[in-house]
Design brief:
CATH superfamily: TT1725-like
Oligomer: single chain
Strand order of the largest sheet: 2-3-1-4
CATH topology: Alpha-Beta Plaits
Number of strands: 4
Strand content: 35-45%
Order of helices and strands: EHEEHE
CATH class: Alpha Beta
Shape: elongated
Structural class: alpha+beta
Helix content: 25-40%
Distance between the termini: 7 Å
């Protein structure tokens, strides 16, 4: 069994309020949970209006499967939202 952790850094250039940020991130988090069956949380920069950091975790049989699933998640985030631009991401395998 392997646990994978994906850290996603997002730029929210058109956002001007915490309410607007929440309006961008909540649907994105819900869609990731629904479509990829992963755990997601906003991990850093909660008070920053124009940036966000999401942590995505998954459990899989092997490290290769976990890495592949998290790579699909990162690619999906990059393609889904125009108001949340993917700046960088990092995948770590635990175990």
């Amino acid at each position: 069994m392997a646990v994978g952790l994906l850290t996603i850094e997002l730029n929210l250039p058109m956002n001007g309020s915490l309410k607007g940020k929440r309006g961008i991130l909540k649907p994105l988090i819900a869609r990731l949970r629904r479509e990829f069956n992963v755990s997601v949380c906003e991990a850093d920069l909660q008070d920053e209006l124009s940036a966000a950091v999401l942590e995505v975790a998954c459990v899989s049989q092997t490290g290769a499967l976990a890495h592949r699933q998290l790579q699909h998640v990162a690619n999906a985030v990059e393609g889904w939202r125009l108001d949340a631009q993917l700046v960088d991401y990092r995948i770590e395998l635990l175990g």
